[in-house]
Specification:
The complex is a heterodimer.
Chain A (H helix, E strand, L loop, with lengths): L1 H5 L10 H29 L12 H32 L7 H23 L13 H24 L8 H25 L4 H36 L6 H15 L14 H13 L1 H14 L6 H4 L1 H23 L2 H7 L3 H31 L6 H34 L4 H39 L17
Chain B lengths: L14 H13 L14 H17 L10 H10 L3 H4 L4 H16 L7 H7 L4 H17 L7 E4 L2 E4 L31 H20 L15
Antiparallel strand pairs in B: 1-2
Classes of the chains: A mainly alpha, B mainly alpha.
Chain lengths: 469, 223
């Protein structure tokens, strides 16, 4: 089906095709990514689990999990939402469905190749920038650039005078992630080493989160919440505060990841202040969305997309409270290099960002398939397995991190810390496996939606119709 | 682009522009969505002020400061004395020297010296390693001792270039050389103050160019 559409004329490609293929690809990679996460967590909980094969060692599998989730699930879910939200918000159609389909096709091929190479141990050896430079070029040319072009051209061809806030973020973030990616991969492309390599590696790691993963997720909420509740967005002007604060304060604090490195002190202090100021866009975003919910809080219980969206927005509160303060010297010396940071990273990616994306994928696929969700019961199963599993993971790793921090500060023998952490490693595996199980159910639910979901009457939205199962 | 400055914290766009923007919000739907023109509720405005204040207060460079060669110089000057050499163990020597240096620094104009020495203890072996470097710096008088960083057993000229020094300052040589120390309160704080100030100035300009929050678009007109 995809191959047939790839070579079809633009006018013969049904609108929404790119959205649908990106949507199912994203869910597929989410299943793969969380499956790998569950496998890796099992290796930490049960050290004798799958030993003797180098390719299944934690050192090989960890990067595959991380990049499958970031480039596979999260970024493809973003692409999926951009494919349907950007044109909808401009009262127009996607600039090129064909470019979108090729983008999706090459993305899947490139990512599969990159992850395979990581799996067999061919890596740049730099955290979060693990892919080797030829794959980096594929990501730039076949993944990010076509996505950006499609988004920018769709915005340029809009039929509205103004640009809605979601599209500010989409347009800006697709540009900023490219700059972030190119600069972040510079150490490998230009053979930079030492402190420069360390700084640029974490400049990328920080900015890919701050200028891509969290702001695009927030942009999605600016669409889904008003769309599903029927309320106007609470405030256009608070949107300005959010957007410009992200640009000013999230692009600058990269060196707070390297407070113990011999970087200039002024740069680290500057970054640390900016790190706390990340709370400003967070306050603006959370306030704007929660105030938009006014009078429609019953939907938090009744509507699956709102349930996920509001969960994501609520998780942004602890996310930014943690993020703002854990990077200050006073707290960082205790939690740096511990499981606390792992918990925080999952709060950002698996918590806030993922919850908002799941909602958008649920909504977008139903609209583009023109079919009502197959089963609300399965969707609720998905929600509860996701949120309970995530909370188990987050809380257990936070506690494990505090134990590690105490062990580090009080110079407790390492093996004693490992023993103390064991119960929390098991809890981590249980939580992660629950999320994985929920995703399997989600994949089935969406597959069945495509096959047997009730057809939406013309001009109606999926959330306007009652569930039949 | 018309401006008005009679009430700059209320609205800076001209009446025509503000009215045109309101009309556009009322008439234009983005994929079925429209936007309100509400202000950030006051408690959240205060919260943002609190965040800015907290950001500077919590990152003040109370933490992460390290002693420099000036702080260890009293130890180096005293380490070969009979009082130290007669002590039996390295630990006793360092205990004596640390107390000695803290006493010496207690009367200095910068009160942080004793605390820094207490939080960054060094071993007798480390002191022996840094002693030649500190003595050389004292003899050459090329730079003040405060310009030299001490990390573990290493001494190095601080990797920082601040304002140019004035002739006669810092022993007079070399003239016009950049200072390699920062005021204790400024480890990136001043530049940040400018950055944050510019952000809020630009943000105020942007938001005050919008129709005042007291003017609500009439959404019943939206098609």
């Amino acid at each position: 089906m995809l191959l047939k559409l790839l070579f079809a004329k633009e006018e013969d490609i049904p609108p929404g095709s790119a959205t649908i293929f990106f949507g199912y690809s994203a869910i597929f990679w989410f299943v793969v990514g969380t499956g790998l996460g569950s496998f890796n967590a099992a290796k930490l909980a049960f050290p004798d689990f799958v030993t003797g094969t180098e390719m299944f060692a934690f050192g090989h599998m960890r990067q595959v999990h991380v990049l499958a989730v970031i480039l596979g699930w999260i970024s493809m879910a973003f692409a999926m939402t951009m494919m349907y939200m950007t044109p909808a918000l401009g009262n127009t159609k996607l600039w090129s469905e064909k470019l979108g389909l090729w983008n999706c096709f090459l993305w899947n091929i490139g990512l599969s190749l990159g992850l395979f190479l990581l799996w067999i141990g061919i890596t740049s050896g730099r955290e979060y920038s693990d892919l080797i430079w030829p794959i980096d070029l594929v990501v730039l040319v076949a993944v990010l650039l076509p996505l950006g072009i499609n988004v920018w051209m769709t915005i340029a061809h809009r039929r509205t005078q103004g640009i809605y806030i979601t599209n500010w973020f989409f347009g800006a973030c697709t540009f900023m992630v490219m700059v972030t990616f190119v600069v972040g991969q510079a150490p490998e492309l230009f053979n930079l080493t030492g402190l420069t390599e360390g700084y640029l590696t974490f400049w990328f790691a920080h900015n890919v989160l701050g200028l891509w993963i969290t702001p695009v997720a927030a942009a999605i909420a600016y669409y889904t919440i008003p769309k599903l509740t029927g309320n106007p967005l609470y405030s256009h002007r608070i949107g300005h505060l959010h957007f410009w604060a992200i640009i000013a304060f999230y692009s600058t604090p990269a060196s707070h990841h390297l407070l113990s490195a011999p970087l200039p002190e002024w740069l680290k202090s500057f970054a640390s202040v900016e790190g706390v100021l990340i709370l400003i866009p967070a306050v603006a975003f959370v306030a704007n969305i929660l105030l938009t919910m006014k009078g429609r809080w019953s939907m938090f219980v009744e509507n699956i997309e709102i349930k996920f969206s509001v969960t994501g927005v609520l998780l942004a509160i602890p996310l930014n409270m943690q993020g703002g303060f854990q990077q200050t010297r006073a707290i960082n010396w205790y939690v740096h290099g511990t499981g606390w940071i792992v918990a925080h990273a999952h709060l950002a990616l698996l918590g806030m960002s993922t919850a908002l994306e799941i909602a958008a994928v649920y909504f977008g696929l139903q609209q583009m398939l023109r079919r009502k969700l197959y089963s609300l019961a399965l969707a609720n199963f998905h929600y509860w397995f996701y949120i309970v599993g995530f909370c188990i993971y987050w809380i257990s790793m936070t506690i494990a991190g505090l134990i590690q921090g105490a062990g580090k500060v009080y110079e407790v023998p390492y093996i004693d810390v490992v023993v103390a952490e064991h119960p929390y490693m098991i809890a981590r595996w249980v939580g992660g496996t629950m999320v994985f199980t929920g995703n399997l159910v989600w994949l089935y639910n969406m597959w069945m939606t495509a096959r047997e979901g009730t057809v939406l009457p013309k001009g109606r939205y999926s959330h306007e119709l009652a569930y039949e199962r | 682009m018309g401006w008005k400055f009679d009430k700059p914290l209320h609205e800076m766009a001209s009446e025509e522009e503000s009215t045109a923007m309101l009309r556009q919000w009322e008439s234009e739907k983005h994929g079925g969505l429209w936007e309100g023109n509400n202000r950030l509720p006051l408690p959240f405005t205060y919260l943002i002020a609190l965040i800015v204040l907290t950001a500077f207060m919590i990152t003040m460079p109370i933490w992460g400061q390290r002693p420099n060669a000036e702080h260890y110089a009293p130890m180096v000057n005293e380490m070969d004395s009979a009082a130290v050499q007669n002590l039996a163990t390295d630990e006793e020597k360092m205990k004596y020297l640390t107390a000695f240096a803290m006493k010496e620094l207690a009367t200095a104009s910068d009160p942080r010296g004793p605390g820094l020495l207490e939080r960054h203890p060094i071993t007798w072996d480390d002191l022996q390693n840094i002693a030649p470097g500190i003595r050389e710096a004292q003899t050459s008088q090329k730079y003040p001792l405060a310009f030299y960083n001490i990390v573990g057993d290493k001494i190095a000229l601080a990797n920082f270039e601040g304002n140019r020094t004035v002739n006669g300052d810092f022993f007079g040589e070399p003239t016009n050389a950049p200072a390699r120390v920062q005021p204790w309160f400024d480890k990136g704080m001043i530049i940040d103050l400018f950055y944050v100030s510019y952000f809020f100035i630009v943000l105020i300009l942007i938001t005050k160019r919008l129709p005042s929050f007291t003017r609500k678009p009439d959404m019943s007109k939206t098609s």
